[in-house]
Amino acid sequence: MNSAEEKRTAQALAREIRTICAAAGRPMQFMEVCGTHTMAIHASGLKSLLPGNLRLVSGPGCPVCVTEKGFIDEAILIGRKYDASLVTFGDLVRVPGSFGSLTTFRAEGGRVTVVYSPMDAITRALQESPRPTVFLGVGFETTIPTVAATLQAAGLRGVDNLFVLPAFKTIHRPLQILAAKDDLHGFLLPGHVSAIIGAGSYEYLVQDFNKPGAVAGFDPLDILVALRDLSRMAAEGRPEILNDYRRVVRNDGNPVARAIMDEVFEPADAVWRGLGVIPGSGLALRGTFTRFDARKHLPVEVPVAKDDPRCLCAAILTGSTTPDKCGLFGKECTPEDPVGPCMVSSEGTCAAYHKYGVA
Amino acid sequence: MCLAIPMKLIAITGEGTGKVDAGGVNADVSLMMLPHAQLGDFLIVHAGFGIEVLDAEEAETRLDLFRELAAATAEEEEA
Ligand code: SF4
Fold it and tell me: Does residue A268 share a domain with residue A203?
């Protein structure tokens, strides 16, 4: 398809959405659960194609944004106390903790390495041996199996100075909490998380909450198709879970990836910025894999961390407000000098609004 | 953070490892989650791991659908 065809396709889909929303005659509000969708929606400017009575709000699917401040503090304290080498995805390095970020920690002489793949943490651990090397475990079901597979490999290779500091999160529990909100009428479901857990795993949205969901890809046209399907289902009051990313997502997901994840991790409680402690929504290392647990083997005292009370990140992550309502937005809080994680993550809602404008 | 990109599997280099074409550059990929991946498949690659194989038929169906929608809009523009 050339760009003229893409534009026409977008117009055709937008027209369908407008027709459905006009006929519905009442406002509808959908949540894009995944931060990668938030970015794609803002980068493409597709909100400008949507009718005024269809609103899109962001959800909790930005791993860095929902991770509590204390996690950054814990990582830095481990780095200091044990002279540990910290290994992380790039998204985390500028997130402000209570006493600086990983970037400032590195500037002060701390060891911080940014990697593309968790597998690179094994290489790093071998270089640093016997110094403890700690991978900062942030992410959802897309990422968790890659970390699990890395630990399996590290176990087989007898790497004994590699650890993981787990702050992983799984999506179903928070989604159940959000599905109960009356002002959310449907969910744009994550693409690559669903590649692992399967489009069939969201049936509870329909069974228990009578709300529709559509699994979407990340191309603007994919997102428009999913929004059209959501609008139609919500307007007609006939909720289903539709898979609009069939070229990648299977109904049963990727069972091999889930088996790897289940061998290494077991469910645990997790703290979410904006949602608090949600039982069973996180992961802890299982059985023999606890030998990799940084929290167990490299313990530190982490003081209670407080978010800046003026930062609205928590409410933004539950779709209750938008960044333009925050008094710090674009003033005291910018991507260069962020106050909250929603501004620093490449897929945070404040970062998206800041980069592409308040639409 | 859940960004994942389709890349073509161009070599299987060992048990559970291969090479993909990442925009003209060869990159290592783990096939641990895709035991049935075959040479020439487009893999959805996240953090160095293939997490799924792109379904070529579904991809084509999607494009056909979009072309139809585009054609309908083009006709209206002309009318
Ligand atoms: S603009 Fe900054 S301070 Fe305001 S909600 Fe967003 S991250 Fe928080």
Answer: no
Q: In terms of residues, how long is chain B?
A: 79
Does any domain span residue A350?
no
Q: Are residues A55 and A183 in the same domain?
A: yes
Read off the pLDDT of each residue in A114-119 and give the average, rounded to a whole number. Answer: 96
The tally of CA atoms less than 13 A away on the side-chain side of residue A228 is 20
Structure tokens at A161: 């100075």
Going by pLDDT thresholds of 50, 70 and 90, the confidence category of residue A359 is: low
Residues of chain A with pLDDT > 90: what percent?
Answer: 92
CATH number of residue A156's parent domain: 3.40.50.11740
- Total domains, chain A: 2
Give the residue from A13, A92, A114, A142 with the most B CB atoms within 10 Å of its CB, the best one to mutate.
A142
- In whole angstroms, how far apart are CA B44 and each of A3, A161, B48? 24, 31, 10
Contacts of B74 in chain A (CB under 8 A): 8
What is the model's pLDDT at position A59?
93
Interface residue of B2, B17, B29, B42 to substitute, partner A, most A CBs within 10 Å: B2
Neighbours of A203 (CB within 10 A): 12
Residues with CB under 6 A from ligand 1: A 311-313, 316, 323, 326, 328-329, 333, 339-340, 342-343, 350
Q: How far apart are CA A345 and CA A350, in angstroms?
A: 9
Condensed to tens digits (0 to 9), the pLDDT of residues A195-222 reads: 999 999 999 999 999 999 999 999 999 9
* pLDDT of A227 over the 70 cut: yes
By residue range, what is the domain housing residue A37?
3-63+171-244
Mean pLDDT of A240-256: 98
Task: For residue range B63-79, list pLDDT tens digits in order.
Answer: 999 999 999 888 887 76
Could you give the ipTM of this predicted complex?
0.94
**CB contact burial B5-41 (16+ within 10 A = b; e otherwise):** ebbebeeeeeebebbbeeeeeebebbbbbbeebeeeb
Residues of A in contact with B46 (CB under 8 A): 142-143, 146, 192
Do A158 and A293 belong to one domain?
yes
Supply the pLDDT for residue B5.
85
pLDDT in tens, A90-112: 989 999 999 999 999 999 999 99
Enter the tokens of residue B39: 């040479």
A162 shares its domain with A263: yes
Q: Which residue, of A211, A244, A277, is where some domain finishes? A: A244
pTM above 0.90, yes or no: yes
Structural domains of chain B sorted by starting position, each given as residue range(s) with its CATH number in brackets:
5-78 (2.30.30.140)
User: Per the domain annotation, does A249 fall within a domain?
Assistant: no
